[in-house]
Amino acid sequence: MTKPPGLVLASVLTLAFIGLAPLLQPAWLLTLLLIPFSLVLFLIRDTRYVSLSIIVLAALYGFGWLSTFVFTCTLGIVVIGELAFRFTGGKQASYLYHLAAAVGVSLAVMLYLRYSAPLVVMMGVVAAVLLRAALRGRDDVLMVEALGVAMTMFLFEEINFQVDLTILVVAAVIAFGFGYSSYRLRVADVSGLFSGAMIGIILIVFAGVPWFLIMLTFFIVGAGATRYRYGDKEQLGVAQEHAGVRGYFNVFANGLVATGAAILYGVTGNPAFAALFMGSVASAAADTAASEIGVTGKTPYLITTLQPVPRGTNGGVTLRGEMAAVAAAALVALVAWMLGVADPRMAVVTVAAGFVGTNVDSLVGATLENSGRIGNSGTNLAATFFGGVFGMLVYLVT
User: Fold this and answer.
1) What DSSP letter does each residue of 195-206 carry, written as one string?
2) Would you say residue 103 has pLDDT above 80?
3) Among 182, 324, 361, 370, which is 20 to 30 Å from 107 by CA?
4) 198 falls in which pLDDT band (50, 70, 90)?
């Protein structure tokens, strides 16, 4: 990992323009001043993509699509974070330095602008490190990171959800502790660590620790099911790649609907969104258990034709897999009932939603995934969406 002097220059310019941002109004004045300086950086080979990311942010700010706070924070997080990452060698530990630098510059911006938005900052910082890990090796990582951080901060600024700072800090400690443990236990890679932490923070902040524990139940069920008779699955050629280590694709495919439900519940307080969350998590747990345990059973049958197919075929179902799915969904429902998130009626609906979700996964796998139109993550997302919506609708009408 190189340490280009051009990045130091970019960092100095970034800090200077962060200082000028609230003083130069309207916003397009700063944009007109910032773009020529960024073009100078473009002439330096190692900072071309840094330059392009700054230009993109400046354009968004100049058109009035980003507030001064989101613009300056994003600029600092991306550029100063990248400086910390590269100057520490770009190793695994460098993500920690990236995180610390991003937090530091964001706090400085909040103090300078006298604008308190810790949740917005937290989401922007985590999004930055997540994208840095997920897109490592790509030349355009900083451009994607800049857009991703800006859009994430813009979204949470628009939601304007007020959270106590103590709760946010506790949420971050718990979520990152879980993510790091998953990484150390080889359940998740670096991108999985940060994507899991992001989901954990959102669940705790918007809905509470019990919701995080319900999601944690899914991860435990998934990890256990993956390790179940792993040697046998390796011999059969149907074991999960990388020994079941999950990345951000898998985390978001299984957790995106549940995360959205938690945000909606936090904003509205409507129990229908709790049912959406429960159905989604139960579907994810049921599908993982059905896939990982069912594959060790007898000959699977394709869900669309009921014809026997080889083990590991998308859309293949077994009696053992269906029973494992129901058991996993029931475990999620039981934990939710014990934690007070689900009443008995919602718990029953949750089990039914898990069963529906896992079979939607099989149906989508047999049709769209086998034909190459979508990948496994798309199939998982469809299963959690339909399972969650099924749970929400049944809960509303019963």
Assistant:
1) HHHHHHHHHHHH
2) yes
3) 182
4) very high
361, 338, 217, 342: which is closest to 287 by C-alpha?
361
Residue with tokens 């998740």: 188
C-alpha R_g of the chain: 23
Instruction: Give residue-wise pLDDT tens across range 273-326.
Output: 999 999 999 999 999 999 888 888 788 899 989 898 888 788 889 999 999 999
- β-strand partners of 302: 316
> What CA–CA distance (Å, rounded) separates 328 from 254?
14
Distance from the first to the final alpha carbon of the chain:
59
244 confidence band (pLDDT: 50, 70, 90)? low
Q: Is the pLDDT of residue 39 over 90?
A: no
54's CB contacts (< 8 A; 6+ apart) are: 10, 14, 34, 38, 41, 75, 79, 146
For the residues of 279-337, what is the DSSP string, one character each? HHHHHHHHHHHHHHHHTTSS--EETTT--B--TT-TTEE-HHHHHHHHHHHHHHHHHHH
What are the contacts of 226-232 at 24+ separation with CB within 8 A?
Answer: 226/288, 226/292, 228/292, 228/293, 228/296, 229/296, 232/296
Q: Which residue has the higher pLDDT, 239 or 223?
A: 223
Q: Whole-model pTM?
A: 0.91
Residue 55 tokens read as 């230009």
Domain parsing of the chain, residue ranges: 5-160, 209-397
